[in-house]
Amino acid sequence: MNEPATTPGHSVQQKIDTTVPHSARIWNYWLGGKDNYPVDEEAGDAYTAVFPGIVTIARSSRAFLRRNITHLVAEAGIRQFLDIGTGLPTADNTHEVAQRLAPETRIVYVDNDPMVLAHARALLYSTPEGATDYIDADVLDPDTVLAAAAETLDLERPVALILSNILGHVAEYDRARALVTRLMGALPSGSYLSVNDGSRGTDPEFERAQDAYNESGAVPYILRTVDQITAYFDGLELVEPGVVPVTLWRPEAGGPAPEPVGEHGGLARKP
pLDDT of 101-150, one tens digit each? Predict the structure, then answer.
């Protein structure tokens, strides 16, 4: 297995604030991970006391991403991924799913969270045939992201851009739209966009819990309407069934009938 170099983390530990709950660590807690602190567990438990369904949303989001990647590799022939806002490593990370199907796949992860950086080596092991890399950068700086990604990915060949539960952290919706446009504009025809985010207008209990969380002083996450999430795909060709609750996006056969959740997602191809 290859172990690529990562951005130096000489002061990572000093930058991790363990006194304030952090959304990536809380998400990791809901997914059953161990990369979190008591303050994150307390915040996560307080959230689930109001809305227990958040655990289902977190795990359904991860399953949606796994099915997206499987489709992209097995059916669309994609061999390059740019995963922005990757979060803390758990089971079935992007490179694990993709390289199981096509070992030559190349993946670039992007995040600016110091704890993710501290775990980058655990995240980045690749097959010998493929490659993984980690960029310490912010989705709000797409030019830096694209320039760094080009050191590992061939941006003249199709790339799948993954924005999973990251655009809700961009407070201004117009700016979130502009970021998607800039990133996809740099990718060639045949590339794909995968987006999933918490949705407003689908689950009032979820909305109340998230609004309370946003008012707690933690880093806010903005729920967007289904129409707003769908608009991220303007100008692209949506893959069936379009933008739907993540549980309903090509559910695996043979399991129980999925129930809708307050998170929507979709996948689309750049013509």
Answer: 999 999 999 998 877 777 776 667 899 999 999 999 999 999 999 999 99
| pTM of the full structure | 0.89
How far apart, in whole angstroms, are the C-alpha atoms of residue 213 and residue 46? 9
Q: 20: which residues sit within 8 A by CB, 6+ positions away?
A: 39, 217, 218
3-state DSSP assignment of residue 161: strand
- φ, ψ of residue 131 in degrees (nearest 5): -155, 150
Strand ranges, E, within the chain: 80-84, 106-111, 131-136, 160-164, 192-200, 224-225, 237-238, 244-245, 263-269
Cα 181 to chain centroid, rounded: 17
Nearest to 195 by CA among 52, 82, 112: 82
- Residue 119 near residue 89, CB atoms below 8 Å: yes
Three-class secondary structure of residue 48 per DSSP: helix
Where residue 230 falls (left for φ over 0; alpha for ψ -120 to 50; beta otherwise) is: alpha
Hey, what amino acid is at 133? D
The continuous run of DSSP H or E covering 107 comes out as: strand 106-111
β-strand pairing of 237-238 with 192-200? unpaired
Instruction: Provide the sign of the torsion angle of the four alpha carbons 65, 22, 134, 123, taken in this order.
Output: negative
Residue 48: both structure tokens together? 């689930």
Whether the ω angle into residue 204 lies within 30 degrees of 0, i.e. cis, is no
What confidence score (pLDDT) does residue 106 get?
A: 98
